[in-house]
Design a protein that fits this description.
Elements: E1 4-9, E2 12-17, H1 28-43, E3 48-53, E4 59-61, H2 82-92, E5 97-101, E6 104-106, H3 108-115, E7 118-121, E8 126-128, H4 131-134, H5 140-149, H6 152-161, E9 165-166, H7 167-172, E10 178-179, H8 182-197, H9 201-216, H10 222-236, H11 239-249
Parallel strand pairs: 2-3, 3-5, 4-6, 5-7, 6-8, 7-10
Antiparallel strand pairs: 1-2, 8-9
The structure holds ligand LCV.
């Protein structure tokens, strides 16, 4: 059974996350369908892609599918993780990707949305960066996505508190482009997309790629990278990591002991 719905309206492709039973968790199948849709849009040379959840969704996406995370002793967010593939596909898609949001945006879905080129959200939308809730050591390129979307203090606040941030505050901070009433959201987003689609696609594609390369051009020494990977291993080898995942699955509050 498909977990997404794909639609093409002229030069605009729309992918709708539609797995409400698991709150659109970013599991291998759902991510695979989104990636396949983006590849199809690229082959058709569509000029804008819109990523959304089904109308009226209370949750845009609950983030990484926790049941697909390793239960310790292994890199949880490695290069080949579906979430990492999704982020790269959005960043490499040769046209703007607009996130049109209703409902809560959690964990890896936050990064997915922030990797999009423009973000339009209903006022009720919230954004929660959740690694600290689960005991997960988020990965380097993921943290860079957050750092490119806002200031270090705001990234620290979201990462350390794991508390949802409202869409109006996110807009005030410049993290998202627009907050639009839910009943006007689709029309507004389609109008925004149509305006972009009327502009020169080659110029837009090269500016998007320039911005991607410049955003990733952060110096990090091999020693610095190795130190981070060593620190992350300590976390995903920890008892806290196992406790975080187990507590989620057992639907109880985790008890983290710092070991
Ligand atoms: C699998 C789920 C999920 C889910 N995976 O509905 O950023 S990191 O590092 O943390 C990264 C590793 C990451 O993204 O991890 C995931 C972070 N996400 C979260 O912490 C959000 C977890 N979900 C929730 O807090 C709630 O589900 C929300 C608030 C999103 C929705 O609450 P609601 O009461 O509407 P339920 O919690 O009852 O969830 C409905 C079903 O979806 C499953 C959940 O286990 C439940 O399944 P069952 O019906 O089988 O019990 N589900 C929800 N989120 N991330 N499965």
């Amino acid at each position: 059974m498909a977990l997404t719905v794909t639609e093409i309206r002229g030069p605009i492709g729309i992918v709708t996350l539609d797995n409400p039973a698991r709150r659109n968790a970013l599991g291998k199948q759902l991510v695979g369908e989104v990636i396949a849709a983006l590849k199809d849009f690229s082959e058709r040379k569509l000029r804008v892609a819109i990523l959304r959840a089904a109308a009226g969704s209370k949750v845009f996406s609950a983030g990484h599918d926790v049941d697909e995370l390793p239960e310790g002793g292994r890199e949880p967010l490695g290069w080949d993780d579906p979430l990492r593939h999704l982020i790269r596909e959005i960043e490499n898609f040769p046209a703007p990707v607009i996130a049109m949001l209703e409902g809560g945006v959690w964990g890896g879905a936050c990064e997915t949305v922030l990797a999009c080129d423009l973000i339009v959200a209903a006022p009720e939308v919230t954004f929660a960066v959740t690694p600290a809730r689960l005991g997960v050591p988020y990965n380097v390129s993921g943290m860079l996505t957050f750092l490119n979307a806002t200031t270090p203090h705001i990234v620290r606040e979201m990462a350390f508190t794991a508390k949802p941030m409202s869409a109006p505050r996110a807009e005030h901070l410049g993290m998202i482009n627009y907050v639009i009433p839910k009943d006007e959201l689709e029309a507004f987003t389609m109008s925004l997309a149509s305006g972009i689609a009327d502009n020169a696609p080659l110029s837009i594609a090269v500016m998007k790629e320039q911005l991607r390369i410049l955003a990733g051009a952060k110096p990090m020494s091999p020693q610095g990278f190795e130190r981070i990977q060593g620190l992350r291993r300590v976390v995903y080898d920890s008892r806290d990591y196992v406790e975080g995942i187990r507590a989620f699955k057992e639907k109880r509050k985790p008890v983290f002991r710092g070991e």
